[in-house]
Design a protein that fits this description.
Radius of gyration: 18 Å
Strand content: under 5%
Structural class: mainly alpha
Number of helices: 5
Oligomer: single chain
Number of domains: 1
Number of strands: 0
């Protein structure tokens, strides 16, 4: 069976090297890698929100960043009417 790269914009050799490296990692190392990626994504989200809402407090930015992955419908279900201020 031929190898199928995970992405069209990455050369097969690079794709194989990345997945070989992931396979060599322990479960804890992979979990730590995912946690670091998640923290980086959160920081990037907050930075983007800070540009859109320069007068927002850190608490508001954290709430807005927390609502982003849920999407509007799930945020409304989870938080209720107070969610509207975070979704603007």
């Amino acid at each position: 069976m031929p190898y199928t790269p995970q992405s069209d914009d990455v050369p097969e050799a690079v794709d194989r090297a990345v997945f070989d490296g992931l396979r060599r990692m322990t479960e804890i190392e992979r979990l730590e890698l995912a946690a670091r990626a998640s923290r980086s994504l959160h920081r990037l989200s907050v930075a983007g929100l800070r540009l859109r809402f320069p007068d927002a407090s850190e608490e508001e930015l954290a709430r807005r960043a927390g609502a982003l992955p849920l999407g509007p419908e799930s945020t409304r279900r989870a938080i209720g009417v107070d969610a509207e201020a975070w979704l603007a």
